[in-house]
Design a protein that fits this description.
2 copies of one chain form a homodimer. Helix content of chain A is about 45%, strand content about 20%. Chain A is an alpha+beta fold. In chain A, strands 7-3-10-9-8 form a 5-stranded antiparallel beta sheet, sandwiched between helices. In chain A, strands 4-5-6 form a 3-stranded antiparallel beta sheet. The interface of A and B includes residues 146, 148, 247 and 259 of A.
DNA sequence: ATTAGCACTCAGTAAATATGAGTGCTAATA
DNA sequence: TATTAGCACTCATATTTACTGAGTGCTAAT
């Protein structure tokens, strides 16, 4: 268990290191107003803290830096997750809504705003359309053999794909099929579309045997429409200002990792579903992020569960500020009404 | 005017430097099979080439490197723009078409392929939808007051936007408006939509006075739909392998510049409209690209003018190979039929 | 006109030497 | 018994110095 002074020292070390990115020495600490002990005393406590694995030294004659365990302790004991400044939340909400009312734009803005506030990189995952329900499906003919399949969800999300048919489409045939699909599939979550169509297809076969071929094609196309989840990156260049990313060896893996959209999406989707969660250094299990910490949170927009937002910075990130800003932003989003 | 030997030497210097990224010395050159002169002779010619501004030395005791003027000479005199290897073009075409038939995917693939072939970064601008003609416009109601405006073009391009109405929409009213818009605007290039609607709006006013308000809203929304040109980036990480981008000072401006999508789009759109065009170092006028050269070309797909593709590498890029690959790719695209 | 020869230049590397911030331990002090 | 002053020791970093070697320009010989 930590003595009060040790706690004070640990906190001072971390706060200082977060600011300066330099190892913190005993003399520096003893000069602080809130630590009126001699450097020797502090050295003794530091030795204890090191024994406990909370801090470490890069080499013999350097000061101490927090270890991952130390950060973990700091985050768990010294950072308040739930601290919302009503006025600031309100102001952030205003800033967000000023830009747009469309949800996708709103999320993009939120990501940008969050990275402006913190100077870290943010990633936001939009709503997974998998949960959206089919509002309407349609086929717009372009010419005899080509058409665009349109899928609109109850959330106003649109997906589309161009299809080419083997043989010219009979207009009434198309209309019939579309109507059929709409009748049967309206309200189906997009994620289940494929499955549901499998169920319906036997009915179809009986009802419209003669043009079975083209119908199948249309259905295939419908199912084949991709359901990408939209991904927004904010403040990517902030990384250039972090002292720990001033060398190619550290910078390159990070940049290569963050540019890989698909992997990024998978990662965000795989995160545990919580309100605000901090993952420190190697905890996140990603090689390219071994020197990074991540603050993630699911967010809701207008009350509805929506997506995930993440903030990525060096392990030496300002957890207190980061967590606070994250809290404010998701609260501002939560309070945002989609329609005016 | 250059003597034959000087030309030989210039070419050798550039070829060598492109390979090694190291200044080339007289002794190195004299050891080449195609340059059986003594190093002293070569030194004399090098001095002349330097006087002409074609090569320069980083410092007294280094070898020579090509100057921008030198590269320009090399590109203008020693690189053949139009050299197509039928078999390879065919093979590239196959590789492209294997992946997809949809034009947007095809372009993305082309960008990736080109950067694979050259190890440089590529940027491709998709078709500007401005030239696409309206095939159909539609409004899909989501609930009483929200709907999705859909715009489909003759090329199968889809754009959409969610609109919120002040007051509930009357279904027949909506239908009427949509029909009206479709009747009047079908075939209009997207770029002119705004203008054309201005012309039509007075007619509308007369015809449907009572619900003028909602109609106006719908029309506004229609016009307000954005027309983004799609942009694809290929092989961004290739830059990390270029020796001239091993330091943050050079890397950072490049990465920051290339991540700025809008600026990138504007830049590509502003390029002179030619088949293959090489811009060397500071010629391109972009600070972040002062150490880069760019090979650009407009391309056509299935015969139709489509967009622009660019390849960005260090000034010390392999112009011969780059130009050749660019030629092959745009030729492969040109020969690609959109429907099977 | 070409080449051999030689003195000279200068980036890059490596070894040699300081510098100083910081530590751990011990003994004195409150 | 907890704190502090004092001191020897460590080690990354900066500075100096010397050395190496690839390359040049010039001159004199071929």
């Amino acid at each position: 268990m930590l003595t009060e002074r040790q706690l004070l020292i640990l906190r001072a070390i971390i706060d200082d290191y977060i600011q300066t990115a330099q190892p913190v020495g005993s003399r520096t600490l003893s000069k602080r107003d809130d630590l009126s002990f001699s450097s020797a005393t502090i050295r003794n406590d530091m030795a204890d803290l090191e024994d406990m694995g909370l801090i470490e030294k890069p080499h013999t004659s350097a000061g101490r830096i927090p270890s991952e365990v130390g950060y973990r302790y700091y985050v768990d004991h010294l950072v308040e997750t739930k601290l919302i400044d009503e006025r600031e939340t309100y102001r952030l909400g205003e800033r967000l809504r000023a830009s747009a009312q469309e949800s996708e734009v709103l999320i993009r803005q939120a990501a940008d705003l969050l990275s402006d506030l913190t100077n870290y990189t943010t990633v936001a995952l939009g709503p997974s359309s998998q949960m959206n329900r089919l509002a309407r499906i349609d086929l717009m003919p372009l010419d005899e053999r080509r058409g665009v399949v349109l899928i609109v969800t109850d959330q106003g999300h649109v997906e589309h794909r161009t299809v080419v048919f083997e043989s010219p489409m009979a207009p009434d045939m198309v209309e019939q099929t579309i109507r059929f699909l709409n009748d049967r599939l309206k309200g189906t979550p997009l994620g289940q579309l494929k499955f549901r169509i499998g169920e319906e297809v036997s009915n179809l076969r009986l009802a419209h045997q003669q043009q079975y071929e083209s119908m199948m094609q249309l259905i295939q196309a419908t199912v084949g429409v991709h359901h990408p989840t939209s991904l927004y990156l904010g403040g990517k260049k902030n990384i250039f200002n972090q002292p720990e990313f001033q060398t190619l060896d550290t910078l390159r893996p990070f940049l290569e990792w963050i540019d890989e959209q698909e992997r990024l999406t998978d990662w965000l989707e795989s995160l545990p579903n919580r309100e605000i969660y901090v993952s420190i250094g190697s905890e996140n299990g990603i090689l390219a992020l071994q020197n990074c910490s991540v603050i993630t949170s699911d967010y809701t927009l207008d009350g509805k569960t929506f997506g995930t937002i993440a903030m990525i910075g060096p392990t030496r990130m300002d957890y207190r500020h980061g967590v606070r800003m994250m809290g404010q932003i998701i609260e501002a989003l939560r309070r945002t009404k989609l329609e005016e």
